[in-house]
Amino acid sequence: MIVKSIGVCYWRNILHDFNIGPFSESLNVVYAPNGSGKSSLFEALRRGLIDRHNVKGEDIKEIQPWGKDLAPTVTVEFVNKGVSYRITKQFIRGARSVLEKRRGDQYEPFADGSRADELAREILTKDPPSKGLSQPGHWGWAQALWVPQGNMALAPLSDELVSDIRSVLSVQLSSSGSSRVEKQINALYGLYFTGSGRLKKGKDAPQSVLLEQKLAAAREGLKRANEGYKSFLNASADVQESRERTEKAKQELTRLTNLLQATNSEAKRYSEIKADRERTNLEKDKWGTQFETLAKIIRDIDITEKNLVTERKELESLKTNLKNRETGHETAAKNVKQHQEALERLKENQGHLEDMTNMVESARSFSEFSSRLSIIDTKLSAVSDATKHLKELESQRASIVAPDDETLKAITKAITTRDNLKFQIESLLVNLEITAECGLTIDILKGENTGEARIASGETATFRGSPEISVRIPDVALIRASGPSSSVPELKEELRKTEEQIAHLTIPFGTTDIDRLNTLHNDAKVMEENVRAAQVKIDTLLGSDKRENIEFQKEELERNRDGILEQYPEWADDQPDWKNLKDEVARSRKLQDEQNEAATKLWKEAQKISSDLDKEIGIIKTRIDGLGKDIQRDENILLELKKDNRTPEQRKDELNEITMSWNAAKINLAELENQLGKFDEDPEALAIKLKSDKEQAEDFYADQKKQYDMAVGSLNTLSGSGSYSTLAEASEKIADLERNLAREELEQEAVRLLHDTMESVRKDALSKVSKPVEISASKTLNRICGLDLGQICLRDTFEPTEIIPEACDRNVGLLNLSGGEREQLYFAVRLALAEVLAKDERQLVVLDDVLTATDSVRLGRVLEVLDEKAKKLQVIVLTCHPERYQPLSSAKFFDFRAA
Amino acid sequence: MKFIHTADWQIGMKAEALGDRAPQVREERLAAAQRVTEVARTENADFILVAGDVFEDNAVDRRLVQKVADTLRSFGAPIFIIPGNHDPLIPGSVWEHPSWNTPNITVIRENTRIEVSQAVIYPCPLMEKRSTSNPTAWIPNENNSRIRIGLAHGTVEGIRQDEPDYPIPRNTPEVKDLDYLALGHWHSYASYTGADGNVRMAYSGTHETTKFGERDSGNVLIVEIDSAGKPPVIRRAKTGGLNWLSVSEELIDQGDINKVKYLIDSMLNPSRTLIQLAISGILPMEERSELEHIEQMLDTRFLWSHIDCSQLRPAPTDRSWIEDLGPGVIQETARRLLGSSGSEPEVTQLALARLYNIVKGSVK
Ligand SMILES: [Mn+2]
């Protein structure tokens, strides 16, 4: 279907008859500024072709011009399947619908009212709006072909449109009969599975789920039955083992009982022998003690008597010794006294020797003082002479006035400057030499000197000046001579200053002659050198000392010397030889020391002899006292030992008797030990141990018996429960459930397979359907955007879902594209769908104010695409930017306002 | 002298595969015991020898023990029972039950000779579940004029075994100078001919079949011996109550399934029959409903049944109904299912069958 023209009246803000057309069958651009109602045109087209004329409600009222009770009318001329039609619809007031068909060049009525609505609509959709105004879902083909204002995106297409597209694409997906089959398969599948392919749960769960649950419970039961059965087997084995253990315990008890009986009688005999041994042992010990006691008394008497004899003998010997020592001691005391007296005598010589030593010291000091005084006197006299010479030289120097180094240098410099200045001035002056041939009076106007000058005839006068000289010879000439124009007065001023400086510097010396000044300077220098030399001589003589100090030393030395002279006046005339005196004193002292030493030695020896003897006497006396006490003690002991008043012979007889009884006891004891040794083990201990063993064996047997009884009890309980039968029933129940489950699962899996196969077939078919559209749309998109965006993926309902970019291994959702690219993508898909729908007949594509997000470069490509597609499509572009579509040279342009 | 030789009653036997029908099958083993005593009474036997494994396990329900004892007591004449490897004489065994204190029943508890009628019996009771020793080893070679009968439970040498299981030498009757050795342990009847050409040793087999494929079971032996040294005369008498049937059918031509259906339909005594039916071959889709009918018959009429269709394939030319579908999702679905070589052909078959049902409007 394509549109020839559209006319409206009383439509929103259009208050007059308005008609636009005839449209080209390919490209059309309708342009107008914003708000001028060009979208109303699109709306009118939709209302005219799709909506019922008698539609009610608020929506249709909105198209009525505001505030006016006028009836909105639309007339659309269109061509469908080669036939031209005209439909006119009036809404709200006087609602009507008329469809006319063209025959020749006349429209003839074809249908009216609802029939007209229906026929017009069928061209676009089989799915009309039930009431109210049509929404895009009811637009039929126009869903894909017509783009409402700025909304390029595709809403999900209606089933009808999808099916139309598919049928154009020649794919038979379902025949009428098989949809029932599909529904039944789905219903069958729904008995078992949820939409997402999982088994249903809860009250809707299929039989297999229930069976699984029962099976789990049954397996639990089998597990318990198995445990019960195992318990029975274990209990049986336990009883068997326990029975054997109990039997063994019983045997052991019997064995121990018999053994104990035999051991008990053995133990009785053993204990009798042991008692005998005990008694004999006591007897043996008694005799042993008696023997020891008596033998000791006899031995002690003998020892004590021998001791007494020895002690008495020693006492006698000591007494003799003491007497000898006492005599020796008296002699030694006398010796000590003699030697002490000799020592005291030697000490008296000591005083004289000290006096001599003092005199030697005084003599030495005296000599030293005298020699030092003589040195000092010599020094002082030399210093005195040098000082006098210095004074003379100094007064000589003082008589000459001469410039020093610095002053001389300054003067020399000033003189040089002065000479330079003079030379410069000289060179700047202009000389005018006049030789008069007759006497002349000359008036000097400019020059060094001005005024009148006279030059006698034949004389020559010279005039100087700078920079010029001008003289007038009255009545003769004015003569002017000039030189360089430098400043002689400045140089002269400088010269004056320099000469002043020279005068000032040379005043003290009475001459300005530089040679003279140099001579004066040199003379003064020689004299100063002499003074310095004299001073150095004095300094050398004095060394580091000062003269006053030397004089003070001299006085002190004289005082000390005079002190010594007071004691020894004779030394004033005759100086003592102190070294000789010293030797003499040393000799005397040596002699004295030798004597002293010898005497001391003798005295000490005598003292030692005396004190040694003293000590020995002390020791001997102590020993004598000790021996006295020992003798007293031994005598007492002997008395005590012999208080039995028996003779030694009597004592010896008694000891013999005791010895014999003792030996007899020993022999008895050995015999008894021998008898005891024949027992392997202590039968009493063994009997005790056996008794304990037997008691233990009794306990053990009782214990085993008890365990056995318990095991039998528990076995009886278990065997009574018939666990094998329970086990059998449980296994059978499981087998039964498993069999039923297998049957259910087979059914279930068959249904799943049937359903899944069908779904997979359907999916494959659908994916084939959308393929050509995908390819065509992708091609267009690539032309507009380049190859980067790659392939477009469509759902089987032809909605784009994502793209497969060229340089990316993952698909990209549409939301990841820019607004412009998304718009271009939908544009491409819409065009691809339009091409499909236009397979048999040219179709109208409306683009209302779209591609606003597309840049000019891409828009250019879009227009190329549009231009090409317009070979099969009628395109009406509504825009407020006609210049953007200017490149569409083949397009027909309509100015909306002019219409 | 005449006696009944029976063994391996396996009372309380577990029948896992039978699921909820197992109790009935178990119950039948008790009834068969009753039939054994009836045969003995009818034959006027002097005594009954039970050669072990009366019970499946020592831990069976004690009510079963009581029932067996009651059944045997009602016989009146002497009955000698040896414990077998399933019910050995161990602490807690079935043989401790008080019901055995019955005058005509002797549970053998040790290796000791017993004189009865003209015979001396040498019983060999088992004391444990497993042993590699010969249970008859103890039997003495005595000099007397009585008929010498052995009663033992074990494996006659020559039967292949991983390890000896109570081995009994093939020539035991000759070696032990026995007139007859009554054996238990193997559930099928088996007799052994001695060097003199006479049968002096036999397994009676179980008195009631225990599983599918068990040969010659469900009998007792009636043994007659005139006097010591005379060859025994052995007859078999049926005591089994249930049939254990294994049937295999192959479908080749169209309509073959109806033959199978007829076979099942015409079977006698289905309520006392356990059946394993394996159907292989090719089944056209439109005949599948017949298969389901067979399943229903098996399920409702028989004591127990199992049908194995894992070797059943749809007819390869059976595509007309698919062609009739016309192009579309369903046709393609059917084609894929038909062409699938999935790991679970049974699932695929069933899925196709379900689709067929839906297409034909016969969906439940
Ligand atoms: Mn056995």
Defining key terms:
heterodimer; A: 899 residues; alpha+beta; Rossmann fold; flat; B: 364 residues; alpha/beta; Purple Acid Phosphatase, chain A, domain 2; 6-stranded mixed sheet; 26% helix; binds manganese (II) ion
What does this structure look like?
The complex is a heterodimer of chains A (899) and B (364). With 899 residues, chain A is of the alpha+beta class. Chain A has helices at residues 38-49, 58-61, 113-124, 142-145, 159-168, 178-192, 207-348, 350-398, 405-428, 488-506, 514-542, 547-567, 578-641, 648-677, 683-720, 723-785, 819-837, 856-869; strands at residues 2-9, 18-20, 27-31, 73-80, 83-90, 96-103, 106-112, 146-147, 430-435, 440-446, 451-455, 460-465, 468-473, 477-482, 791-794, 800-804, 812-813, 843-848, 873-879, 892-895. The model of chain A has no long low-confidence stretch (mean pLDDT 85). Among the domains of chain A are: 2-157 and 768-895, Rossmann fold (3-Layer(aba) Sandwich), CATH 3.40.50.300; 405-540, no CATH class. The relative contact order of chain A is 0.13. Chain A has 18 helices and 20 strands. In chain A, 63% of the residues lie in helices and 13% in strands. Chain B is α/β, with parallel strands linked by helices and 364 residues long. Chain B folds into three domains: 2-238, Purple Acid Phosphatase, chain A, domain 2; 242-315, no CATH class; 317-364, no CATH class. In chain B, 26% of the residues lie in helices and 25% in strands. In chain B, helix 4 (256-265) links the parallel strand 15 and strand 16. The radius of gyration of chain B is 27 Å and the shape is elongated. The termini of chain B are far apart. Manganese (II) ion is lined by residues 52-53, 84-86, 153, 185 of chain B. Manganese (II) ion binds next to loops of chain B.
